[in-house]
Amino acid sequence: MRELLRRVFKLTIPIAAIAVAAGCGGSGSSSSGGNSGGGSTPAAGTPQKGGTLTILASSAFGVADPAQNYTLQQWAFLIDTHDGLVAFKRVGGTEGTQIVPDLAEQIPQPTDGGKTYTFQIRKGIKFSDGTTMKPSDFVTTFERQFTVPGPTSFYSGIVGADKCTPKNCDLSQGVVADDNAYTLTIHLTAADPEFLDKLALPFAFVVPGSTSPKLTGNNVPPGTGAYMWQSYDPNKEAVLVRNPNFKVWNPDAQPEGYPDKIVEKYGLQVSDEVTAVQNGQADLVFAGDTIPSDRLNELGTTYADQTHVNALTADWYFALNTKRPPFNNLQARQAINYAFDRKAAVQLAGGSSLAVPTCQILPPNFPGYTQYCPYTANAATDGAGDWTAPDIAKAKQLVQQSGTAGQSVVVNTDGPDKPFGEQMVADLNKIGYKAKLVVLSGSIQYPFVQNSKNLDKWSVAWSAWYQDYPAPSDFLNVLLGCGSIHPNSDASPNIAEFCDKGIQAKMDKALETGVTDPDAANQLWAEVDHEVTDQAPWVDMYNPKQIDFTSKRVQGYQWSPQWYILYDQLWLQQ
Amino acid sequence: MAEVALEPQAGVPDQGPDRVAGRSPWALAWRRLRRNRLALASLLLFVVIVVMSFGAPFYADHIAHTDPFVNNVNGTTIVDGKKVPLMEQGGGVLKLGVTPIGPTWDIHHYFLGSDTQGRDVAARILYGGRSSLEIGIGSAIIACLIATVLALVAGFYSGLTDSLLSRLMDVIWAFPVYLLAICIATVLLTAPNGLKVGPLHVEASSLWLPTLIIGFIYVPYVYRPVRGSVLSVAEKEFVEAAVAQGASNRRLIFSEILPNVITVVIVLLPLMIATTILTEAALSFLGVGVQPPGASWGTIISDGQNLLYTRPWVAIAPGIMIVLTVLALNVLGDGIRDALDPRAKLRVEG
Predict the structure, then answer these.
(1) pTM of model > 0.90
(2) How many CB pairs below 8 Å do chains A and B form together?
(3) Hey, which residues 509-548 in chain A have their CB within 8 Å of chain B?
(4) Distances (CA, A) of A110 to A83, A173, A512, B272, B316
């Protein structure tokens, strides 16, 4: 998912056109700030239930139907109100990327060469409206994913999914429910090593079979979680209260939360949100709201105990247009990678405490990650080591060798990120290009640069990506795989239009290997990561960090690499 | 301008009828303006702002020695004889964020401090003033020129021509100014070649783009009063006399009517410049005016909005410049109106 934290990304594109997994989420390892030490903070006193947790966000998350909403802002609530067959363990730290059984009694071993999963469904679980959850409810849930429609690509491997349209979807061959035996069998067209990760996403959270196959708008269908939606008004607030029908069946997947009520209020300026939390008038600033830079020092000093900083498994980068000059030339792409001042980018992002420079695609502490940075001054021969400084001499030499010196380059960015674009323009000019900046509004820029019809209008495009789930393919295959190029579509996540047949073959092999041998697959992904970095379809800038600012009374802070802050696990000192 | 030139100068004791009769209406207006000290002070202030703004390259190159269009987040400057980084890392355990250096009040070293990209705010304000003034004055002149021509045509020919032109102006007027400007600017800024109409080609990054857009949207605002004046003047006896003498339409428009409505345009011009400067600042603040790395007062305020707590001067300084410029132009506009309007002469000179 793109720009998950800074600006909530609402998918408004024809998602049915997407044929590859599109990313979102958050994961990897965490490092914490004021209460440093990974994903959780020792709680003062005994955890206690009760009270209302109040979160402040500048704006709402759009349509609330879980089949469509693709924002972590709502996902942070949906994990409290709904369940899937499996779940990411509801705990802070790296443990939070583990898959655990949720509505399924256990995690099954796939059969039929990895193409069939048979789940034994738990009995006696009720939705918040009192109806009993049945295996056949999952059939409706998966079919809704195509008729609403949501990001269909996650489940496009289910047998019958290829024939689904927004008007009609029949997955009776692919999702087979037995309400008597309480089993659910899912048939895939091909083995998918990431299928369990995909099942743990909110798109696969079960809703009653009676739910309309069409978009439910701002009404969230009932779920089975510890909380239920009392109301959602995008202009005012979202309110979650305890689900009276909930009983804990697996605390790793769906624990009982601490606050009696969770409220997210909308409409304040972020600076005012910070002030309100400082004053104890609210409990949390929504992490997707970028805290103004002139409030950060104050948080890091006076309010350090209430401020939490965590590393995200995310990339901020510039995609290079590999289809048109000058960056259809490998040396030109490598040249700007050598020239780009990543230290300046880190400063623009708020300094070294909020961003770490990088040269490669995969973020640190991610499956398949091994450090690699060939584009730095005094680079090690094997590429290991940190980025230290740009190598302008080397960059100029490569530009000359490429024969692209003096060519015009258009750098495309969105409004809030224009400082990065200006840095890119300066660095391009420094090595002999004639660069200029085009700034588009945030809602236009991402679909604009994805659409191949606009390839003649930009050479370098700013972008950012946050993981959906902790799998290397969520970066490498989704963003740089040949299958991620969809001509003339606004949903073509391979912005650079990079397609290397040899690297793609290795990605396919890594995917195949992952079904049976995840470790060997990760080694292959590491090779892919380095090879893609050598091909330089991007200028990777940095891996960002996230700030959570809580009120004094908030205790029990836990940060999951997958879901980020766990609202239900916070408790309020009375 | 026969009416104005022959007007008796009653009430001014030191002026004999002979001296008055020998002066042109422009000389009379200038004399009235010179006696309006507030208007003159405003004119002086405006001239100072213009000179400062157009001297921006000199300040940047020879005094501050800085390039205000390039990021300099890793740079340093001199404060009290010591070299200090432009961006200060946050303190405490977390060391969160970086804060740009504040005003040094030393014109050689970041007089008004730095913005979040390490650029000299003072130099950017001067360059920004140049952009704002160029766009403001340019668009006001474009609006006045187009509006005057259209108003002359509509008012003189009246009938269907007048109806068509006036309804067209009504359509433009019906759109909220900023909404229309944002729509046009957004379309043109995303176009690969900017604005391309026949031989006219304006790049998206060019200052001409906001100039033309703002000039276009304000045409109706000048057209209305000028057309009214044309309709009024066209009914006057001296125009009928010219018609009776067999004057051509061209002569009627340019020799009889235009000189008698031009004062309306002249009075409107400074007020329009003030308005267009404000519009430019608003559009640039919203990101659809001057494009980066260029600067205008609006873009600098935008740059400073996240620094209001710690470095308020980044936003306040360009705001002050806008206020001073607009105030000066409005007072000057009033002064010009008083000077050109003979019915106001007693008030001005009394």
Answers:
(1) no
(2) 136
(3) 547
(4) 21, 17, 14, 74, 64
